């Protein structure tokens, strides 16, 4: 393939003019000399609908034109024949941990068609990695990076930033903004006054905040304060229960041992399980209206929640473990010890609890609440890149349509001229069977074409890197 000059590209765009069915990129943004790639004959599926026999023209990591199968092409274009294949926008994982494992997390995302991730525990080296990716020094998905996790006055997380007063919460927000966080991450133990101060300071600093629903603040109230996303389905059962007042009084009176804050957290989860048994459709509708009004979204991370709701050994022999650092096997197994059900009764209860929460997410979606795809990758048996497809399947299993699940997984992207050229070519129709998102043929991102041979090579390199020594890192469902 030969490079196409800027003049040739501009001439081609001008010649297309009002070509039937074609939409074009702004000519002024084409570089002096570029490689043009055309995807010809595939079925394009995005949030705007389905377009058969489409032609998509790309250059400089941008979409130049989208048109019909007979759209004329600039001289020197590389043409990929996609007859019988399907094209979707690049996928997003909106709840990830482990971007710092850049030789594992980043390539596993890309080969699985994940071209954007939201890292939920930020610190300076990850902010630097984000910039290196944008400068083209490292090949990886787009990174949106949160602050360090802000919690307090207690926390289950070693390494969380503990704030005990509203003033400390405000300072934590200012520090996060100065360090380069894209958003502020809040956690489970924050009291109402401190969360309100964090919310107010986020508004002052023009940053958003997201994370766990505090166990001390009802989900609807946190949404009114401005919390953008709620992770893991936490808080949803209580907020939609006819027994919410009674259960919240029980939480308020629950003793907490500072030496073992997880025991308190586990008891709150048991109250949430009980709350699902008194679910109110009326309360769910009222909550949905508040979430929609506040532009708050749910990121249910069903992959991770399924693991924590299952016996400890259910996923231990997953073949994808070969792509994980060797120490993860012990870390994940040991980390599940206090979480998972053991007795037959507990196993039945937790399976039902998980299913009822899935149904609540689908109910919120049916009421117009935005649902985002997130996996909590880095936590036990939630695999970078791979588990995005598991999450898509679980969203459909919960009751979303394949179209709605894809919208959640692509953040509602519409493939149009001027957008970044992050595309995934599939061998099967994801609207017919969401599992077809796993049948990846090619990923296009950052001007790179990752075809079958390249993807196999990348996976082999990740498998090799996973056997090299890594410093042990403690993370638990965050």
Keyword list:
478 residues; alpha/beta; nine-stranded mixed beta sheet; globular; six-stranded parallel beta sheet; 20 strands; 16 helices
Brief write-up:
This protein is 38% helix and 20% strand. Helix 4 packs parallel to helix 5 (192-205), helix 8 (244-252) runs antiparallel to helix 9 and helix 13 (344-366) crosses helix 14. The chain contains 16 helices and 20 strands.
Would you write up a description of this structure?
With 478 residues, the chain is α/β, with parallel strands linked by helices. The chain has helices spanning 6-16, 105-111, 124-134, 166-179, 192-205, 219-225, 236-239, 244-252, 261-276, 281-294, 302-308, 328-335, 344-366, 386-398, 402-410, 452-466, and strands spanning 4-5, 23-24, 33-34, 36-46, 49-59, 62-68, 78-81, 86-89, 91-96, 114-119, 142-151, 161-162, 183-186, 208-211, 229-231, 297-299, 370-371, 423-426, 440-445, 448-450. It is 38% helix and 20% strand. Strands 2, 4, 5, 6, 7, 8, 18, 19 and 20 form a nine-stranded mixed beta sheet that branches. Strands 9, 10, 11, 12, 13 and 14 form a six-stranded parallel beta sheet that branches. The protein has a three-stranded parallel beta sheet with strand order 15-16-17, with helices on one face. The radius of gyration is 23 Å and the shape is globular.
Total of helices: 16
Q: Mean pLDDT, nearest integer? A: 93
**Judging from the principal axes of the Cα atoms, what is the shape?**
globular
Helix fraction, binned, reads 25-40%
Number of strands: 20
Tell me the radius of gyration.
Answer: 23 Å
Strand content: 15-25%
Low-confidence stretches: none
Query: Structural class of the helix and strand makeup?
Result: alpha/beta
Largest sheet properties: 9 strands, mixed
Q: Give the termini separation.
A: 46 Å
């Amino acid at each position: 393939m030969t490079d196409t000059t800027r003049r040739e590209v501009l001439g081609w765009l001008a010649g297309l003019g009002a070509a039937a069915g074609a939409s074009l990129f702004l000519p002024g943004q084409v570089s002096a000399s570029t490689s043009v790639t055309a995807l010809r004959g595939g079925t394009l599926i995005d949030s705007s609908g389905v377009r058969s026999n489409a032609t998509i023209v790309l250059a400089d990591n941008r979409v130049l034109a989208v048109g019909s199968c007979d759209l004329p092409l600039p001289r020197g274009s590389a043409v990929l024949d996609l007859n019988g294949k399907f094209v979707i926008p690049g996928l997003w994982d909106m709840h990830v941990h482990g971007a710092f494992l850049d030789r594992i997390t980043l390539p596993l995302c890309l080969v699985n068609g994940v071209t954007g991730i939201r890292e939920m525990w930020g610190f300076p080296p990850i902010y630097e990695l984000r910039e290196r990716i944008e400068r083209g020094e490292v090949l990886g998905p787009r990174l949106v990076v949160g602050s360090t996790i802000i919690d307090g006055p207690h926390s289950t997380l070693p390494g969380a930033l503990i704030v005990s007063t509203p003033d400390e919460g405000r300072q934590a927000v200012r520090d996060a903004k100065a360090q380069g966080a894209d958003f502020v991450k809040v956690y489970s133990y924050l009291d109402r006054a401190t969360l309100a101060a964090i919310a107010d300071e986020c508004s002052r600093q023009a940053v958003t905040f997201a994370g766990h629903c505090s166990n001390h603040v009802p989900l609807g109230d946190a949404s009114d304060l401005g919390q953008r996303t709620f992770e893991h389905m936490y808080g949803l059962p209580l907020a939609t229960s006819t027994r919410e007042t009674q259960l919240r009084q029980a939480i308020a009176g629950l003793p907490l041992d500072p030496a073992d804050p997880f025991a308190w957290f586990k008891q709150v989860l048991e109250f949430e399980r009980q709350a699902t048994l008194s679910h109110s459709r009326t309360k769910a509708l009222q909550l949905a209206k508040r979430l929609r009004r506040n532009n708050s979204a749910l990121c249910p991370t069903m992959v991770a929640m399924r693991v924590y709701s299952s016996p400890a050994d259910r996923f231990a022999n997953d073949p994808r473990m070969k792509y994980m650092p060797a120490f993860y096997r012990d870390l994940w197994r040991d980390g599940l010890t206090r979480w998972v059900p053991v007795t037959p009764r507990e196993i039945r209860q937790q399976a039902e609890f998980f299913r009822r929460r899935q149904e609540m997410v689908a109910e919120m979606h049916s009421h117009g609440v935005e649902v985002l795809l997130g996996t909590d990758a880095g936590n036990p048996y939630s695999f970078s890149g791979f588990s995005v497809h598991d999450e898509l399947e679980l969203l459909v299993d919960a009751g979303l349509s394949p179209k709605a699940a894809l919208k959640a997984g692509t953040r509602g992207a519409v493939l149009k001229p001027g957008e970044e050229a992050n595309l995934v070519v599939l061998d099967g129709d994801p609207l017919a069977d969401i599992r077809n998102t796993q049948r990846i043929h090619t990923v296009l991102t950052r001007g790179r074409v990752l075809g079958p041979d390249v993807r196999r090579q990348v996976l082999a390199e990740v498998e090799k890197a996973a056997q090299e020594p890594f410093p042990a890192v403690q993370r638990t469902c965050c």
